[in-house]
Amino acid sequence: CQLQGPSGTLAPLPEGNPELESHQRTASGDVQHQHRGSCRMSEPLSGVVRLFDRLNAAAAWLARWSVLLMLAIGIWNVVGRYLGSAVGINLSSNGLIEAQWYLFDLIFLLGLGWTLQKKGHVRVDVLQSRWSPRRRNRQELNSILLLLLPFAFGVMAISIAPALRSWSIAEMSPDPGGLPRTWVKSLIPLG
Q: What is the DSSP string of 147-166?
């Protein structure tokens, strides 16, 4: 199917960029997905696709900046531990250590969708390297429909109740000086 913008006009994107080869740009500047075939996706559905693409891009942006913040906190934890022991003051805390793994959770859970969309995930293509592009695409679709989506919806369904419970009791870390657990538990169904 071919997605078509409100203007109805599709102009080709610049050549040579493999990431954009399966897309076209509308006259208004919106990037639209280009697929083989003659059917067209309805406007409401293409709007939903664009919304999910924007949400995915925002999640990736947040995950990207979280990497830098996590690294800065990690460096401080290491330096603070050694510097603090040299001067006799504790410069690290359980809150900072937990912040590191909360950020790792955020990076992993929110960055997964972007990585999958950009085909940056790790694959072991022992069989797929010998398959035709059509068979590879069919296998990719079947894997998403039969494995990825049921797993993702299952994890989401199982994790909503513990996340809501965590919010209802204002769950905190059991460690002294730790962070609230509510935010990190909410990332699981969101991811």
A: IIHHHHHHHHHHHHHHHHHH
Burial class (CB in 10 A: 0-12, 13-18, 19+), 46: buried
Q: Does residue 12 carry a pLDDT above 50?
A: no
Lowest-confidence range among 18-22, 60-64, 75-79, 175-179? 18-22
Is the Cβ–Cβ distance between 191 and 183 less than 8 Å? Answer: no
Question: 11 - beta bridge partners?
Answer: 25
For residue 131, give the 3-state DSSP assignment.
coil
How much is the pLDDT for 100? 93
CA pair distance 50, 32, nearest whole angstrom: 8
Q: What is the pTM of this model?
A: 0.65
Measured CA to CA in angstroms, residue 16 lies from 5, 31, 118, 154, 165 at distances of 23, 16, 16, 40, 51
